[in-house]
Design goal:
208 residues, 9% strand, mainly alpha, three-stranded antiparallel sheet, single chain
């Protein structure tokens, strides 16, 4: 290959890398709709505007998609399940706020993540943070674990139920983005010393 052709290919590669990622552009629009909680023409237009501003004025590296193989039927199932869980979690948090009893004690747990790609991990964390009742407060990318604050840690049963729901969400995200199946989620007691400490503390509370 001549020097001239090599330089042309290098310039084309640089231009390709400098172009905004279409996947990131669409994902920003979707996240904008989820943050507002409803899909309207105004929200769609606002999401497109935000995605354009981010793409132009806050350029980011292209999303690494070496292990990404989108499974569109699984993607549809993921969002359908997410919206159902979102509605249920919203009513649960609303009930905790409106009932006459004292608010339940919270809990901090460490949960392993079995994703292979950074985009898959980021997508799973974004969906988890959008669900009422829980928030990711720390990410250990090396160990592929996340530390979560749970609003309702009143019992081991309640904690285990929340972790099982997160495991189901993770399996669906991996199925949608990496097109592979995960084994059943590990037992909650296998999540390491931090989580074991939380479970021991919660065991003194009321069992479900």
């Amino acid at each position: 290959m001549s020097v001239g052709k090599r330089k042309i290919r290098e310039l084309e590669e640089e231009r390709r890398k400098s172009r905004p990622s279409f996947i990131l552009f669409v994902w920003l629009i979707v996240m904008w709709q989820l943050l507002w909680g409803e899909v309207t023409w105004a929200n769609v237009a606002g999401g497109i505007g935000v995605a354009l501003l981010v793409s132009i004025f806050v350029p980011m590296p292209r999303v690494p998609v070496s292990d990404i193989s989108v499974n569109w039927p699984a993607m549809i199932g993921l969002f359908a399940t997410f919206f159902v869980d979102f509605i249920v979690a919203s009513f649960t948090v609303a009930w905790l706020a409106l009932r006459r009893s004292d608010p339940p004690p919270s809990a901090v747990v460490e949960v392993p993540m079995r994703t292979r790609d950074d985009l898959t991990l980021a997508s799973a964390i974004a969906l988890i943070n959008l669900q009422p009742g829980g928030l990711v407060i720390d990410i250990d990318n090396r160990r592929k674990t996340v530390t979560m604050h749970l609003l309702d840690g009143s019992s081991t049963g309640r904690i285990d139920k929340t972790i099982a729901q997160l495991g189901r969400l993770e399996r669906q995200v991996v199925r949608a983005f990496e097109n592979r199946e995960l084994d059943d989620a590990p037992a909650p007691g296998d999540f390491g010393h931090d989580h074991a400490g939380v479970r021991a503390d919660a065991a003194d509370r009321k069992e479900d």
